[in-house]
Amino acid sequence: MTAASVEQSFDDEPFSLTAIADEIMERHPGYRVEIIGGHLLVTSSPDAPHARALTGLMIPFIGAGLHGAETLVLQNIGLWLPTGEEDYAIPDLAIVDADIDDHLVEHNAYDPAPFRLVLEVTSANWKDDLKTKVTAYAQARVPVYVVVDRRHERLHVLTAPTASGYDTHRFYAPGQSVALPASIGAEVTLDVAEILKAGTRKSD
Hints:
There is one protein chain. The protein is of the alpha+beta class. It has 4 helices and 15 strands. The protein has helices spanning 17-27, 48-63, 126-139, 192-198; strands at 3-6, 32-36, 39-43, 71-75, 78-80, 88-89, 93-97, 104-106, 109-110, 115-121, 144-149, 154-161, 166-172, 177-179, 189-191. It has a 6-stranded mixed sheet with strand order 4-7-10-11-12-13, with helices on both faces. Helix 2 (48-63) runs antiparallel to helix 4. The protein is globular. The model is unreliable at 1-14 (pLDDT under 50).
């Protein structure tokens, strides 16, 4: 997905970033707009490899029983952030408590408390996933952040959130398996090579 930070100044009257985000999405259906640190992040529709990797990732989570009575496996659900008055992110995938409906804040974004894991599959906006969102998700106290880094062909697992980032940041290469923290609600092991292969564009 292609992403760009959008900054606008309005000298004569107050403005709402949320209203601007809504207008962008209305004019450009399929685009994702997030507000992080007071900046608009606009992302185009995902390509097929991105979607294929994301679907493949859901299989082990659902197979482990994480989509049921206690937890849910959800795509593209809004996460309200403490980094600004209008800040929210939309992770590609999340493991959340099943009572997520009770935690709606506004603008289709939910309080961070029910989020056990968030996951991003990188595209052209890989720097945002590996830098900007690391700080944002850590400040939201999301316990586990996973990044499928297609650009550098590795998988990142970040745990132990702090005010400035995550205390633990491990990355794994093809040929390795990743056992995710049991705190997400079940034992889940990911095959790095399989995930990265799914996210690779097939040659014509």
